[in-house]
Amino acid sequence: MTIRTFTKADREILREITSVCYDGVSIDQNIEKLFSIIAGKDWIYRKQKHLEEDIAVYPEGIFIGEIENKAVGYISTRVDSDTRIGRIVNFAVLPACQKKGIGAHLMDHAMTHLKNKGMEYVRIETLEQNAAGRHFYPKIGFREVARQIHYIKKVTK
Ligand SMILES: CC(C)(COP(=O)(O)OP(=O)(O)OC[C@H]1O[C@@H](n2cnc3c(N)ncnc32)[C@H](O)[C@@H]1OP(=O)(O)O)[C@@H](O)C(=O)NCCC(=O)NCCS
Fold it and tell me: Which pTM does this prediction carry?
């Protein structure tokens, strides 16, 4: 497996990886299960929008994991040189390639990037329903600092 920085040509495959991987671990999908499709936009549309933000805001902090020149996963980051707290934003490996250490390699790469950019700490969030995140992040040294509850309500006339 090799890791390289995102280029504009990766956009479509990252959109695809996002839609496949976040099935079961997406707040937007939870919303859709409760309220169905909203404004003609499904959860995948909204989750891909999140990726588009990464691409728009900090493309040089997105890293692609490749096997035989095919992208199988990615990790996106943000830096804040003021607070020196960086972030991991999106992180996904195709199901057929999971549990083989690819995610751990991507995470190492992202952490090195954030360190090189002067970050002193790195934040990441995961859902209670996300078994991989809840296992992996504490294992590599992330400390839990808070739990948040997400609510949604239909706007009434
Ligand atoms: C999170 C994700 C990127 C990890 O990728 P990966 O290539 O499987 O990661 P690795 O193989 O390096 O595994 C890292 C650790 O997580 C564990 N892990 C992976 N999938 C797991 C799962 N479904 N349940 C519990 N632990 C899991 C691995 O066993 C490993 O821990 P170990 O070293 O103690 O064995 C991948 O599971 C994924 O794409 N998930 C869906 C999207 C997602 O949840 N993204 C993160 C949002 S916070």
Answer: 0.98
